[in-house]
Write a structure and sequence with these properties.
Length: 240
């Protein structure tokens, strides 16, 4: 089992509460947020992780080095910002498995990784997206799901409960080898959203803990979540 973690985020929205660090190095419960993500993958039995890095990549490499709890770490370094899509495409050159996990570096989500991979292969899916149900999908944008397939992505701002993209994917190593794709692009808005009808991604439903640390309010809640356990609501609120 191999994974790519998108670790090149600038953390611009966290600058008011976090020093000038890559987002994955933001301290959460006394440790870099990336350590919590790596723990999930170690516990799932992953053998290696590619860290897709860019901004201040040296801070990540100096802290984590080449191994973490027995997990092999390699670094895919952007010489210039490529967007999430370009970063994934570059990192895919460093994996050998036919299918690989891609994990957003600002989202903590508990998933049965091996079950997700098995479901992806059993369904012979083009790609698989982890989805999570929240009480209010307005911030994230809800998904249009038909059975176990994602038909489309609804606009952000629609209030009410819904299933959202949890930021964990399984995709084949060659998925982004398409000449039509530009050098710099967003994986979600430039590839996944407009291509949903053709891709028909498999929706893998999750019910574990979930929080996105991208905004200061949820970053503060993550300090409690990852220090004491428990669960979070759809808004990222801690529940004892």
């Amino acid at each position: 089992m191999e994974a790519i973690i998108l670790a090149g985020g600038l953390g611009t929205r966290l600058r008011s509460v976090v020093a000038d660090l890559p987002k994955v190095m933001a301290p959460v419960a006394g440790r870099p947020f990336l350590a919590h993500l790596l723990d999930l993958l170690v516990d799932a039995g992953s053998a290696s992780v590619v860290l897709a890095v860019g901004y201040r990549s040296e801070a990540i490499r100096e802290h984590f080095g080449e191994r973490y709890r027995g997990l092999s770490l390699t670094y895919s370094v952007e010489s210039q910002p490529l967007g999430t899509g370009g970063a994934i495409r570059l990192a895919l050159q460093r994996v050998v498995a036919p299918d690989v996990f891609v994990v957003n570096g600002d989202t903590y989500v508990e998933i049965e990784f091996r079950s997700m991979l098995a479901a992806h292969r059993r369904a012979r899916a083009t790609m698989t997206v982890a989805v999570h149900e929240v009480a209010d999908a307005a911030r994230y944008g809800a998904l249009d799901i038909d059975g176990d397939r994602i038909r489309g992505f609804l606009e952000k701002g629609r209030c009410g409960p819904g299933w959202i993209n949890a930021g964990v994917y399984v995709l084949p190593r060659d998925l982004l080898e398409r000449p039509s794709l530009p050098g710099v692009f967003s994986f979600e808005s430039d590839f996944l959203v407009p291509g949903a009808a053709q891709l028909r991604p498999l929706a893998f439903r999750t019910g574990g803990r979930f929080i996105d640390i991208g905004v200061p309010e949820d970053y503060a809640r993550a300090q409690v979540l990852l220090a004491h356990g428990g669960t979070v609501s759809g808004q990222g609120e801690f529940l004892a």
